[in-house]
Amino acid sequence: MTALREKTGWIFDLDGTLTRAIHDFDHIRSELGISAGQDILHALSVMPLERQKTALARLDELEHHYAAQTQPAPGVTECLELLHQRGCQLGILTRNRRDLAILSLEAIGLDRFFSEEVILGRDEATPKPSPEGIHQLLDKWHTPPQHAVMVGDFHYDLLCGRAAGVFTVHVCTEQRAWPEATDLKVASLAELTQLLLR
Q1: Which residues contact 166 (CB under 8 A, 6 or more apart)?
Q2: Domains in the chain, start-ordered, CATH in brackets?
Q3: In whole angstroms, how far apart are CA 16 and each of 66, 71, 72, 183, 197?
Q4: pLDDT digits (tens, 9 = 90+) for 35-73
Q5: Which of 1, 134, 156, 197 is the most buried if burial means most Cβ atoms within 10 Å?
Q6: Beta-strand (E) ranges in the chain?
Q7: How many Å separate Cα 105 from the centre of its chain?
Q8: Closest Cα to residue 40, out of 55, 53, 50, 54?
Q9: End-to-end alpha carbon distance in the chain
Q10: What is the pLDDT of residues 117-155, one digit of tens each?
Q11: Are 150 and 120 a contacting pair, CB within 8 Å?
């Protein structure tokens, strides 16, 4: 874990990583008229324009609903506090809109760790699994990929981290796993914190 402790740039997914996973994606797809299992943002991007406008407006309503119910993930404050104390750069890469990400962070008292310019949503960078957002943050921080980490709970988080050449941490209590894109798997941010303290 020595190498992990030396990382200086930490990029986090939001929903299901810094927050508890509360989004019902099957319900969201149903509300938007998207087939089960489809990538929501991709499905929206290829809709006819009028239908897309209506679906995006409904997505905004649903995301506001979930943002208002945000709860912190176990151990999140302690993890971010430790990294902050060590002088690490902290950023967020989410497929949500930036303003909704900020709303979620404010709801659980984590906004103090992230300035607005290091919170990248789907309008600031091509959505994950594209590594564009990671590249943006590393350029801003003047941090090389080998000194950075992508932390997330889903395959897209790990794929974008792998594509950007950074260390990847999968936070997951379930059996699902993507070992080809994962450098470290932990059950929670509390476990990650304990590893960083060793």
Answers
A1: 9, 11, 134, 138, 145, 146, 148, 149, 150
A2: 2-20+72-197 (3.40.50.1000), 25-68 (1.10.260)
A3: 12, 10, 9, 19, 23
A4: 888 888 888 888 898 888 888 888 888 887 777 778 999
A5: 134
A6: 9-12, 89-93, 119-120, 148-152, 167-171, 184-186
A7: 12
A8: 55
A9: 8
A10: 999 999 999 999 999 999 999 999 999 999 999 999 999
A11: no
How far CA 73 is from CA of 176, 178, 195, in Å, comes to 18, 21, 17
Token pair belonging to 53: 């406008």
> What is the Cα–Cα distance from 56 to 45, expressed in whole angstroms?
10
What single letter denotes the amino acid at residue 153?
D
Residue for token pair 């409904």: 58
For position 171, what pLDDT does the model report?
Answer: 97
**Alpha carbons 120 and 116: distance in angstroms, whole number:** 8
Separation of alpha carbons 105 and 121, rounded Å: 13
Q: 94, 14 in Cβ contact below 8 A?
A: yes
Q: Is the dihedral of CA 91, 162, 100, 109 positive or negative?
A: negative
